[in-house]
Amino acid sequence: MITPFDDAYYMRQALQEAELAAEEGEIPVGAIVVWKNRIIARAHNQTERLMDVTAHAEMLAITAAANAIGGKYLKDCTLYVTLEPCTMCGGAISWSQLSKVVFGARDEKRGFERLSPNVLHSKIEVVRGIMAAECQAVVDDFFKNLRK
Amino acid sequence: MITPFDDAYYMRQALQEAELAAEEGEIPVGAIVVWKNRIIARAHNQTERLMDVTAHAEMLAITAAANAIGGKYLKDCTLYVTLEPCTMCGGAISWSQLSKVVFGARDEKRGFERLSPNVLHSKIEVVRGIMAAECQAVVDDFFKNLRK
Description:
The structure is a homodimer. By secondary structure, chain A is an alpha/beta fold. The first copy, chain A, has helices at residues 7-23, 57-69, 87-96, 132-147, and strands spanning 30-35, 38-44, 77-83, 100-105, 125-128.
């Protein structure tokens, strides 16, 4: 069976957002929110443009998804994000009651999974490492270009 | 020496914000940001009004303070908040590089201080328990009225 709308498909959409961020001089992280196979929010990191440390891709995507749905809880939604969410975004994911989080590259230094006790409720499904190499490469390329 | 602008003075300002939240049917948490003895941002929880789980008092105050200062880092600023910040807000405080955080009541269930390793950089000064009883009372009263 052909399943065009698998995790890799959606992660590619998040990766497109990350690439947009890079073009704008933002640390390239992208996120989308999917509800019933539909993308209801897409966002990329905008901390520089908005001059706001809270403007991570995940935060903007969660806010946009709540607007799209007309309610603050994202119970049947999945968040795709190219990089493991940080502490702040992990906390926001927890509040949002997303049912599933899929991330690409791991962030050992700032990712929420380093924290104990678990930041996310055990009912939230977490899928790791989808297109991890591509998601990491866009970050590595960004910092390589910065140092040039 | 009379010092009108001590931690209790500023916490009272945060508490006024919490009381505004309660009047609006929001879980009553208030926050202010102070820079050189000046209040540059004040905010209260608006998750219901904005229909956005990320709209905690601290998040709104951090965003507003960055706008007031004209830069995303709040290096010489102090955040006063009536309740111990949650995981999300602890992460945001960390990103913002605030120099000091003062909170009133403890939040044992959701507060950032339950997490390990420490969410905040060790350079950020944390002061706990300023007007804790008053800050807790405004939350307790809110939930008592809800149950009526």
